[in-house]
């Protein structure tokens, strides 16, 4: 199903986060010498985009989705993911992650994004009217107005092939 235009800003942010996840996967295992740079990049993504993204979902989308009983369990899963992911982003900010932690963050964030795109957004689009989606879109625009509007340039480089 084609993504509703009112959800596209969130989907674009998902693409930014997925790009980081792919880069982490390709660079794993992360060398100890590179760990600080990866944590800096993860922290930048959180500060510039993800914190606004999570807030927009939690303040706009999730409350709207709760009106559909069959979507509530998925909302609860997504909220649980947000809680775990926030803890990991906080660890990146304080530079207390290990290489395995960075990889775990990338795996969980990637799975979370795919769950939102493939299940959550799809279910909302199937259940909400055009008017409801338009209202959601306006609220999301307001909630996301202070977030970065472009993918940050990578601070880390992939390790070279042997």
Describe the SSE topology.
Elements: H1 8-27, H2 35-65, H3 72-93, H4 99-127, H5 130-143
Helix pairs in contact: 1-2, 1-4, 2-3, 2-5, 3-4
Key words describing this protein structure:
single chain, 162 residues, mainly alpha, elongated
Descriptive account of the structure:
With 162 residues, the protein is an all-alpha fold. It has one domain. The chain is built from five helices and no strands. The protein is elongated. The N and C termini lie far apart (41 Å). The model has no long low-confidence stretch (mean pLDDT 93).
Number of domains: 1
Helix content: over 70%
C-alpha geometry: elongated
* Helix/strand order: HHHHH
Radius of gyration: 16 Å
Strand percent estimate: under 5%
Query: How many helices does DSSP assign?
Result: 5
Average pLDDT value?
Answer: 93
Structural class: mainly alpha
Q: pLDDT below 50 for ≥5 consecutive residues: which ranges?
A: none
Largest sheet: none
Question: How many strands in all?
Answer: 0
- Report, as a whole number of angstroms, the end-to-end distance: 41 Å
